[in-house]
Amino acid sequence: FLVKDLLIDWRWGEKWFMQHLIDGDPAANNGGWQWTAGTGTDAAPYFRIFNPILQGKKFDPDGRFVRRWVPELANVPKKYIHAPWEMDKTTQKAANCIIGRDYPSPIIDHAFARERTLEAFSVTKGNS
Q1: Based on the domain organization, do 45 and 68 belong to the same domain?
Q2: Contact 56, 66 (CB under 8 A)
Q3: Are residues 45 and 56 in the same domain?
Q4: pLDDT in tens, 70-85
Q5: I need a labelling partner for 36 at 20 to 30 A (CA). Which of 42, 55, 65, 125 fits?
Q6: What is the distance between the alpha carbons of residues 6 and 127, in angstroms, rounded to a whole number?
């Protein structure tokens, strides 16, 4: 998300993680961030841009992880757990989770970000 949706240099993420990981390993951390960014010796292709909503649904279909670590979303119905901003106002009130107050609105639209990233990366495609 940081690299491919927001187009932020992977080194910012690497630095932040190394400052906060209790088991940080420079080789694993740098390698992971380089893979994500599409750089390095065994990089993910530039067009591999994970959809955070679909990844959440695939690997946490019931939202157990989200509910545990994001208490603001604890009462959000399963249908909206990976996209709480899609709740109508009545559902937000019932879940005690008002978007923009209790939980932030999305900072970027993933579909827009994906297209922007593909365009940005395609400019350098084939140039080395």
Answers
A1: no
A2: yes
A3: no
A4: 999 999 999 999 999 9
A5: 65
A6: 23
Nearest to 114 by CA among 58, 47, 35: 47
Same domain, 65 and 81: yes
Distance CA 39, CA 31 (A): 9
Q: Which residues of the chain have pLDDT under 50?
A: 128
* Residue 88: count of CB within 10 angstroms of its CB: 9
